[in-house]
From TrEMBL:
One GO term (biological process): recombinational repair
Pfam families linked to this entry: AAA_19 (PF13245), UvrD_C_2 (PF13538)
Protein name: Helicase
Domain (UvrD-like helicase ATP-binding) ranges: 192-617
The organism of origin for this protein: Micromonospora radicis
């Protein structure tokens, strides 16, 4: 605080001034159209050409990828292309926008500077106390292609007039963004990034950085802009290794899904924990207590035991009948020795099977050799070493022998191992003697789908088992499916190009679109020949992919087992970890960052903090602060940046009237929204009942798994509301929310801090029995 920043609105710049800016902005849009058209043209030309050498095809494939990405990017930055201008002390002007545009006709001067370029940084950091050579910062507000307002800040200490929010940059534009109605989709903040956020966004790539901040401090926004910044600044490195962003649930990923494309970045892989094991779609649900058991580090030992349990030694000798009715005997001591040998090899289970096979087959071949090569005169065995080797080879191909080996040391997929473990109380008892009877009972279940907490266990199992041929085949199939999706995407972009008539120029009048000449299968074939995939495609299909950078949002929710998985995905330990330990809801979640990170990086991680809440107004923050103090009196809430002017309302309602009262409140709140959204947050146990009441009265309300946030009214649980926000929020039955989980107070804190404007709390009296 206290930079003494002067905020001249510059008076309000005249209409002439807006007119001059309009001219410039229109020129930029014209350039954008030219660039897009050029990329369309090149894309369609590349797609039409067939044949040629392998190298030519491969080059063409790269070109197709490049031009289709360009077309997408130029379309994505349409809104708010240019949003700022810096006037320097030397009298230069720099326009700042979503991408860089250069004067290719002239001397390649930048017409628009990418917000991530070093020279654009002053737009976010310059203050009157430290103007960084900037005389004036101008915010341009546009609607579609029209300039609708201009806000100036003159960075001049002499005329400084301290305000309540001296630390804010571009206050007018910031407050306009914060007070705008929500749409159910997160917007980017590129026009109004604040200084404390900018420092995190542009922090160095290497190392583990934790971003701790209370609700609404912009952690998610910062994480996404950091991804865009890192891809811009370290393009070469990160475009080959990829960036992974992990969020808490599918609804949240949809909520944030438009931010990176609007920043012209499409290469970041967005995933929930449930999607991090390729080929598994973990949508099954289970009690929070079961997920908590599965998240504990002791599960490594449980899985190790479960694998060892599948490496069997029979109690009695086994008979193996060969085709000529010859019977071989495999005694327990031989199997025991083979198992020891295989275990000592240090290889994962599936790869150690080869060692086991060799040992057993050697012993069986010795038996055969003993019989057929015995010297009737009692001398040495008559068979040569080559004969014995041939016997081993034949035995190795005998179905009966293979069946016995499969039984004693089966090749397993992670799914098989885990499904068999969960399905059998005996297997659980053997693998998990260190768990309590209740914990073991929690693991027991019938097969049929996977839960998010299973995903880190599948990944751990995959490490213990090693990859066999089946896993590699499954990966190839996943890659093919993704390639096909990509091929269709490219053709979709090309279809859009039909309005630009490049086709008839090439064909002398015959109007044939690219998509008439090439279908997704043929494009896919071409791609496969060249074996080219986007980084994100390859990474999505490959469990063992090592990302160049990993960003985790709502990271406080991750269990120790989930951290193990993520650390495997990021051996370079270049990570941005974003969260708030006061909001931890998962029982196996993170009580402290040191606790989560020390096993992997000791104390080599850095903590940064965000201290200002942009979402939650002062009125609501003071209600939430009371709950925060109950969680831990040492915790401080973030400072709210603005007041909404709406004091929160708290009502006691007789339990039998709760649903009716909720409907009334929701109807009134929804009617009061012009273009915003209403969130109704309810205890998990009452979501069906209360959700049905609200949807009966307000049919546009969304409720249920993955509700559509673009609906005007959404009814959801706290777990589903994580990371989201609404203009108005109704929190129903806060006591029950607290009672539903040992982390219930944190859940209530999350619920209370989802509103940008208005908060109503409905408390049933007497409370319903839990
Ligand atoms: N500099 C900014 N300019 C404009 N809006 C901002 C800025 N910083 C944050 N916001 C807005 O504030 C709201 C809260 O941001 P965000 O969701 O990133 O916070 P968070 O810290 O992740 O919250 P939570 O912990 O509750 O999930 C969003 O609407 C975001 O767009």
């Amino acid at each position: 605080m206290g930079d003494g920043l002067s905020r001249h609105s510059g008076g309000s710049p005249s209409d002439d001034e807006i007119g001059r800016e309009q001219e410039y902005v229109s020129m930029l849009y014209q350039r954008l159209d030219d660039l897009r058209e050029q990329a369309f043209r090149r894309l369609t030309e590349e797609l039409r050409v067939t044949g040629g050498t392998l190298q030519a095809r491969s080059q063409r494939d790269s070109a197709v990828r490049m031009y289709s990405e360009q077309v997408e990017q130029f379309s994505a930055v349409e809104n708010g292309l240019c949003f700022g201008r810096l006037d320097t002390d030397e009298g230069e002007r720099h326009y700042i926008g979503r991408i860089g545009i250069f004067d290719t006709d002239g001397d390649y001067e930048p017409l628009l500077m990418d917000w991530r370029a070093p020279a654009a940084r002053a737009f976010y950091l310059a203050t009157a106390a430290n103007p960084q050579g900037i005389r004036r910062r101008r915010h341009l507000r546009t609607r579609q292609r029209k300039v609708i307002a201009v806000n100036d800040e003159v960075l001049d200490l002499a005329s400084a007039s301290p305000t309540a929010h001296e630390e804010l940059t571009g206050e007018a534009s910031l407050l306009a963004a914060l007070n705008a109605g929500r749409t159910g989709r997160m917007r980017d903040i590129v026009e109004t990034i604040q200084a404390e956020q900018d420092r995190i966004i542009r922090a160095d790539l290497p190392g583990v950085m934790v971003v701790q901040g209370g609700p609404g401090t912009g952690k998610t926004a910062v994480a996404l802009h950091r991804a865009a910044y890192l891809l811009y600044t370290h393009r070469r490195e990160l475009s080959s290794r990829g960036v992974l962003l992990v969020g808490p649930n599918a609804t949240f990923l949809r909520y944030i899904s438009q931010v990176l494309p609007a920043l012209a970045e499409t290469g970041v892989l967005l995933r929930t924990q449930a999607d991090l094991f390729p080929g598994v779609n973990a949508r099954r649900t289970e009690p929070a207590t079961t997920a908590a058991v599965k998240g504990r580090p002791v599960m490594v030992e449980v899985l190790t035991n479960a694998v060892r349990d599948r490496q069997r030694v029979p109690d009695e000798p086994l008979e193996i009948e060969l085709p000529q009715r010859e019977i071989l005997l495999l005694d327990p001591a031989t199997v025991h020795a083979a198992r020891d040998r295989a275990r000592r090899s240090g290889r994962p289970h599936n790869l150690a099977r080869a060692v086991f096979d060799i040992e057993v087959i050697h012993a069986l071949a010795d038996q055969v050799a003993e019989r057929i090569g015995a010297d009737p005169l009692g001398g040495e065995n008559l068979l040569e070493e080559a004969d014995v080797a041939e016997i081993r080879r034949e035995l190795g191909e005998e179905p009966e022998v293979r069946a016995t080996l499969d039984e004693l040391w089966p090749v397993l997929t992670p799914q098989r191992l885990l499904a068999d473990l969960y399905a059998s109380t005996d297997r659980i008892a053997t693998a998990a003697p260190m768990l309590t009877a209740d914990e073991r009972a929690a693991l027991h279940r019938t097969p049929g789908g996977w839960t998010p907490a299973d995903v880190p266990l599948l990944d751990e199992a995959a490490e213990l088992l090693g990859e066999d041929d089946r896993a590699a085949t499954a990966r190839r199939e996943r890659i093919r499916a993704l390639q096909r999706e990509y091929a269709e995407g490219v053709l979709e972009i090309a279809r859009g190009s039909r309005s630009i008539d490049v086709e008839d120029e090439v064909d002398g009048g015959e109007i044939l679109g690219v998509t008439d000449l090439l279908d997704a299968d043929r494009l896919l074939e071409r791609q496969e020949e060249a074996d080219r995939l986007t980084t994100a495609q390859r990474a999505a299909a490959d469990r063992s992919w090592a990302f160049g950078h990993v960003i985790v949002d709502e990271a406080q929710e991750l269990s120790p087992m989930a951290w193990r998985l993520l650390m495997r995905r990021c051996p370079s330990r270049s990570m941005t970890i974003v969260g708030d330990v006061a909001q931890t809801g998962a029982l196996a979640g993170t009580p402290s960052w040191a606790h989560a990170l020390e096993p992997y990086v000791a104390d080599r991680w850095r903590l940064t903090e965000l201290t200002v809440s942009y979402r939650t107004p002062t009125e609501i923050m003071s209600v939430a602060a009371d709950v925060l103090a109950e969680i831990d009196p040492a915790l401080r809430p973030p400072r709210a940046v603005r007041s909404s002017g709406f004091p929160p309302v708290s009502r006691d309602v007789p339990e039998p009237r709760l649903a009716a009262e909720l409907v009334e409140v929701a109807t009134t709140e929804a009617a009061g929204l012009t273009d915003g959204r209403l969130g109704v947050i309810v205890p998990a146990a009452r979501v069906d009942y209360l959700g049905a009441a609200v949807t009966a009265a307000l049919p546009e309300a969304a409720v249920g798994e993955q509700p559509d946030l673009e609906n005007r009214v959404v009814v959801l649980t706290v777990a589903e509301a994580k990371g989201l926000e609404f203009d108005s929020v109704v929190v129903v039955d806060p006591d029950r929310i607290v009672a539903e989980s040992p982390r219930g107070r944190s859940d209530l804190y999350v619920a209370l801090t989802r509103a940008t404007q208005r908060l109503t709390t409905l408390t049933p009296t007497p409370p319903p029995p839990c």
